[in-house]
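The authors assume throughout that readers already know how a fold can be written as discrete tokens. For illustration, here is how one protein appears when written out as sequence plus structure tokens.
>
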Amino acid sequence: MDARAASLPCGSAMQNTPGEEPRVVTDTVPVAAVRCDRDGRYLWVNPTYAKWASRPATQLLGLRISDVIGARAMREIQPFVARVLAGEPVQYERLVELPGLGRRWIKWAYTPTFDAAGRVEGWVATGMDIHSAREADRKRDEFLATLAHELRNPLAPIRNAVAILGRKGPHDPEVAWTQGVIERQVEQLSRLIDDLLDIERISQGKFVLRPERVPLEVTIDMALEASRPIINAAGHHLSVLLPSERVVIDADPARLARVFSTLLKNAARHMQARGSINVTATVESGAVLVRIEDTGVGIGAGAPPGVGLTLARGILALHQASLEMRPLETGPGTEALVRLPLASGAAAAEWRAPPAEPAPAQSLRILVADDNRDTADSLQRVLALYGHEVRVAYDGAAALSVGQEFRPRVAILDIAMPGTDGYEVARALRLRHGGEVTLVALTGWGQDADRRRALEAGFDYHLIKPVDPNELNTLLGRLTRQ
């Protein structure tokens, strides 16, 4: 309950006469406030709530909550009522509809009230209109999702084109160097888009960790694998020194590896060629301290953290961990210090990485549909180089026509196609071919709601552009063995 509701604590304060200070406060703040008995009858309401209910306050006294909000809404809030009657303070946000308020998002806080014997006799509720803030959040989410979609789309054909160059065999050294540059920059742009969206998810409490008991060296190895191309390309010297005894932590391996790879890549990028990066880990007081030191230009006073470091701090906070960035004491350079709590309780079982998926054992009939011709054509060429038979369509109607004649084993569909979109194509193909076709959404829309909508439309998989062609081929290999 916030400070404005603190003047409604329950018990004796609520038994004051109307002229006393608590009543003055509750009558003037723009927060709805009510007091109810155990049966959900109004004992007192303030003017703001009376205005929301579009009735004089005197007419509300003695009525049940359901008389104002309706039986259906009452059923929906009943779990919160049960909790407060059990003596638990409750907070929740809900889209409500009241005669004098309309349809608005309200943040409610319930506080139990007690009689002289200490038994719960009812509760005090305060409601704050947060509709404008929720609408601002929704518009910001929509803007970021649209921005990510528009940025991902042109990256897809670039990544496919680079994969085609790689599959064509050895080239001139200059061509190979150029290919490596494009691959790294596409990966960096893709990661930047994902980082921006993940920062937003963390700020809204929507970022989900999948923790498991894992050795520290596993996450370090994963980070080194992701960052080594950048380190090697700059000719940096890399030194890694970990404790001789296994250090076990409770963490999401992929997320934590992402933190370490961000720190390693930052170190590599902020040094002149042939610099030095040292990674060390020590155990101190129930925690492991991972230090990543470089010989770069160091940290400028007041320098902004950047997208990558902001996300790294957010991920570490969810692990009850911390990150400190500071200049080296021994000369130019930077030290990144990560402090992680050690795993508690039983010792960890032997951690095993997921087995690598073999390449497809047979050719598949694949339909590719995307209104971006560069994306569709480049993906067709990549899949053909992997040995698959591929047909292309540039809109939803054409995809349905090709699907009727071609009878694909796999359909890889863009979502935002004009006319008949990917959802409609997916539903039609599922209705026509049933389980004989595997439906893969390949799209720039990557929010959790987009994934849910794709699965509801019948898609088996939801992939985000620009997909790594090798990862896509691994998925296809899994399908050949089903």
